[in-house]
Amino acid sequence: MNLKKTITMLTLSSVLLSLGGASTVFAETVHAADSKVLNVQVKKTQVDLISDVVYEQVSTMGYDNVAMKMDVLKPEKKEKMPAVVFVTGGGFIHANKDKYIQQRLQIADAGYVVASIQYRVAPTGKFPEPVEDVKAAIRYIKANAEKFNIDPNNVAVMGDSAGGYLAAMVGTSNGTKKFDKGENLDQSSDVKAAVDIYGLSDLTRVGSDFSEAVQKKHKSAGASEALWVNGCPTFGGEDGGILADPASAAAANPINYISDKTAPFLLMHGTADQLVSPSQTEILHQALQSHGIKSTRYEVIDAAHGGVYWVQPEVMQVVIDFLNQYLKTK
């Protein structure tokens, strides 16, 4: 039966029914002559994007109430899921929550709610405000666990570069309320695990593996880590480089917050990184282990600071296996 005939019979059926006729006309199933049949096995879950969720309002850039936002990737599952707060890098001077969508999607496909966040940056923001922002985001998703179908007892933090540094600050400072500011203070900002991808640790030695010329730049007053710790001198910040105020630099070092409550860590660094010295994650790794904290560090051969190596399946499987170990194992 051709398509034209089928349409005619369906129309006739509608007319008869509208007239109260007792007859029912059945149309034959129509297939195009060149159609192929595809049998699909359902292996992946649908993932939805919930964009621009405001998790806090902060005072910055001369305004009293600036919205800090997150983008949430939410798999469509009935059971409660663990969550990952994802902190993108940006050299301490920008925080683009749109970055690394491939990484975030692979983690969401593995059964995690993934919240990528904005945070305050230099020179208008300074330490410890960005740490407070990340912890506020963690408290927010725990407070709104029902909305996002999250298991609030299983939340991790992950970041790259400056975001890796912030993930390290959050993971090491489990158990302290020092950086808990703002809303949802009835929730804990502690995390079950921390993933630090080529992040910084000792901000006084960011360029220590590189040439003397590079090291000199990192000691300048214009270096982003100096603005991060000291603030902008024209707006009341400390003038000088990262060594201008040793106490403030030490306070911004995640190593100095390690305790028996510190989360287990996964650290990864590329051997071809030319922006953040690979020894930065090694310093933190050794400090964690010396305190009895579970820490695993990978050197990714030929990987630079960012780039295609970090979205490859081999790298992401290491990340997902680590998250599964601490957030899904009963």
Q: How big a fraction of the residues is strand?
A: 15-25%
Helical content band: 25-40%
Number of helices: 10
The CATH C-level name of the largest domain is Alpha Beta
Number of strands: 8
Major β-sheet profile: 8 strands, mixed
Give a nutshell description of this structure:
With about 325 residues, this protein is α/β, with parallel strands linked by helices. About 30% of the residues lie in helices and about 20% in strands.
Structure description:
The chain has ten helices and eight strands. With 330 residues, the chain is of the alpha/beta class. It has two domains: 39 residues, no CATH class; 281 residues, Alpha/Beta hydrolase fold, catalytic domain (Rossmann fold). The longest helix has 16 residues. The chain starts with a helix and ends with a helix.
For the structure shown, list the relevant keywords.
10 helices; 330 residues; single chain; alpha/beta; disordered N terminus; Rossmann fold
Q: Which helices and strands, and how do they pair?
A:
Elements lengths: L2 H16 L28 E14 L2 E13 L5 E7 L13 H9 L3 E5 L11 H15 L1 H4 L1 E11 L1 H11 L20 E5 L14 H7 L5 H7 L15 H6 L13 E6 L8 H12 L4 E6 L12 H15 L3
Parallel strand pairs: 3-4, 3-5, 5-6, 6-7, 7-8
Antiparallel strand pairs: 1-2, 2-4
